[in-house]
TrEMBL record:
The organism's place on the tree of life at top rank: Bacteria
GO molecular function: heme binding; iron ion binding; monooxygenase activity; oxidoreductase activity, acting on paired donors, with incorporation or reduction of molecular oxygen
Similarity comment: Belongs to the cytochrome P450 family.
Organism name: Streptomyces natalensis ATCC 27448
Annotated keywords: Heme, Iron, Metal-binding, Monooxygenase, Oxidoreductase
CDD domains: CYP107-like
UniProt-recorded name of the protein: Cytochrome P450
Length: 429
């Protein structure tokens, strides 16, 4: 893995030969390398920084097909290296077993059952009812730095907003939410492997969630209260008499936190960053927000997701049999990583893919995935993204970058794409 303190050189043009992947230069701007792969090696076997070998899928058509292919399992037992006891794939905390039997690690029929049950509790209606709370959180966070005239938008805004939002939604009491903030901070800083601090944070989170769920189950009334939280909703969710076990509720709460946190941090971070780099687009959006016509905000968020989305690579998949993808033979047990960021810039699917166009309408991007694992939290992500951008541009209308682009640091993790910090300046409120 590259040294986190190394300076990031300015982005280069399209590489002529095979590009180096997973360097710091690549983390700062992976798109030229992905363009090369799409053209010359669309299904490409490579060694990841962890040493694991995996196939990278970079064309839109292949990516969409792979995401919906039932022969590609989400269950790590299908990984050939795992079968030989040396598997190193994984997300933080993988070894703390119980929380890991969640939606992104399982296949049908278990996936179908769990997804159906959680969908009963995590409904679009619940998310829509949450809108005033997201607005309140957004304003409170902006209040905390608006008088300074400067801020680090990642640490002071994009990072805390989703963690408090998900805690509220789940029903974590306000006095405990700062603990979650600390645990999540540990995971985002050291994500990528179940090392020391991350494993400890996951353990604490697991202990806390188990106790919270137990408490809520004990006090659950016979009929749902109108403002019932999501954990209570999950406990109550039933399908043909089936309920989630306490462990399944804990794993579900964990995946909602885990999947809904860093993604949203990066949606806000990458989104604001790209708007600040594209003044004409930003002005267009600002005018549309002033005129209170929500249209451009809606298409704009989708375009920001396509152009520089939070999830660079979809999470792991493993071939359960020998198969062919994009003309390439993939052996049983091989890991397959679908590169959403590459697919979403494929000129075979998108006109002028390297142009940020907030008015783009033909925009069936893969930023939220595709198929049965399509993002469960997309309505919440859209709500948070739209509220965050609209409120920032309204309250801090002259917000601007306070650093050279070349000095900005990207996290350089495998799955997510996001900035370490985003210094901005503005006229104090
Ligand atoms: C799945 C992206 C926000 C919960 C996914 C997947 C993607 C994704 C690409 C599929 C991964 C794969 O197939 O390997 C995003 C983006 C977000 C976002 C770009 C923000 C902009 C959220 C939020 C939540 C959430 C806010 C919940 C609070 C989930 C869950 C899954 C998922 C539970 C697993 C679904 C399943 O396996 O059935 N997300 N996500 N996500 N997301 Fe999101």
């Amino acid at each position: 893995t590259p040294d986190a303190t190394a300076p990031v050189p300015p982005a280069t043009g399209c590489p002529v030969g095979r590009p180096d992947l997973f360097t710091w230069e690549f983390a700062a701007d992976p798109y030229p390398a992905y363009a090369w792969l799409r053209e010359h090696a669309p299904v490409h076997r490579t060694a990841l920084p962890s040493g694991v070998e995996a196939w990278l899928v970079t064309r839109y058509g292949d990516a969409r097909q792979a995401l919906a292919d039932a022969r590609l399992s989400k269950n790590p037992v299908h990984h050939s290296e795992a079968a030989h006891g040396k598997g190193k794939v994984g997300i933080p905390g993988e070894r703390s077993a119980n929380l890991m039997t969640h939606l992104l690690n399982i296949d049908p029929p278990d996936h179908t059952r769990l997804r159906r049950l959680v969908s009963k509790a995590f409904t679009p209606r619940r998310v829509a009812a949450f809108a005033p709370r997201v607005q309140e959180l957004t304003d409170r966070l902006i209040d905390s730095f608006a008088a300074k005239g400067e801020a680090d938008l990642i640490h002071e805004f994009a990072f805390p907003l989703p963690i408090y939002a998900i805690c509220d939604l789940l029903g974590v009491p306000p006095e405990d939410q700062d603990d979650f903030r600390d645990w999540a901070g540990m995971m985002i800083r050291h994500g990528g492997g179940p090392r020391g601090g991350v494993a400890r944070s996951v353990k604490k989170m697991r202990g806390y969630l188990a106790e919270l769920i137990h408490r809520k189950r004990e006090t659950l009334g016979a009929t749902p209260a109108p403002d019932e939280d999501l954990i209570s909703g999950l406990i109550r969710a039933s399908d043909h008499g089936e309920h989630l076990t306490e462990n399944e509720v804990a794993a579900m709460a964990f995946i909602l936190l885990f999947a809904g946190f860093e993604t949203t941090v990066n949606l806000i971070g990458n989104g604001v960053y790209q708007l600040l780099r594209h003044p004409a687009q930003r002005e267009l959006l600002q005018k549309s927000i002033e005129a209170d016509d929500g249209d451009l905000l809606a298409t704009g968020i989708e375009e920001l997701l396509r152009y520089d989305g939070p999830v660079e690579l979809a999470t792991w998949r493993f071939a359960t049999e020998d198969l062919t993808l994009g003309g390439q033979r993939i052996a049983e047990g091989d890991p397959v990583l679908v590169v959403l960021a590459a697919a979403d810039r494929d000129p075979a699917r998108f006109a002028d893919p390297d142009v940020l166009d907030l008015t783009r309408r033909d925009n069936q991007h893969l930023g939220y995935g595709h198929g049965i694992h399509y993002c469960l939290g997309a309505p919440l992500a859209r709500l948070e993204g739209q509220t965050a951008l609209a409120t920032l541009l309204t309250r801090l209308p002259d917000i601007r970058l306070a650093a050279e682009v070349a000095d900005l640091r990207w996290r350089g993790g495998l799955i997510m794409r996001g900035l370490r910090s985003l210094p901005v300046q503005f006229t104090p409120e």
